[in-house]
Specification:
Distance between the termini: 41 Å
Order of helices and strands: EEEEEEEEEEE
Largest sheet: 6 strands, antiparallel
Length: 128
């Protein structure tokens, strides 16, 4: 059951705080960079082990979210799924990246937690 935009899932592995997660075998794990991953939400806190219960704020919930940055992100920049469930600015490396939303705050370093506004999170951007 979903309540107030949050749903409790069983973790499939350790999950860090404020990370994008995806479904995997009925559990949630960190989202990855690939265009085929479909993030369902952002972890509300960290869990240490597989089968721990984890609250996830679903991406289709109204309002802004806090998410962990993988590096520097400018305020107002589109953000994309990165490794280990982090968000990132559009990389310069060739590839296809899953869009998550827009940064409402700037990040200066890996591990910064910033406010984002999820939108258009089924879209992808391709860098050639």
């Amino acid at each position: 059951m979903t309540e107030n935009g949050k749903k409790t899932f069983e973790a499939g592995a350790a999950v860090a705080n404020k990370r994008l997660v995806k479904l995997s075998g009925g559990q949630v794990i960190h989202n990855t960079v690939t265009e085929t991953d479909d993030p369902v939400g952002i972890s509300e806190y960290a869990v240490d082990a597989s089968e721990d219960l984890l609250a996830v704020r679903l991406l289709n919930d109204a309002g802004s979210f806090e998410a962990t940055a993988a590096g520097a992100i400018d305020q107002g920049a589109d953000v994309f799924a990165g490794a280990d469930g982090k968000i990132q600015a559009l990389p310069v490396a060739a590839g296809t990246y899953r869009k998550i939303g827009i940064a409402l705050e700037a990040a200066t370093a890996d591990g910064d937690i910033i406010e984002i506004l999820p939108y258009d999170y089924n879209a992808t951007a391709t860098v050639s």
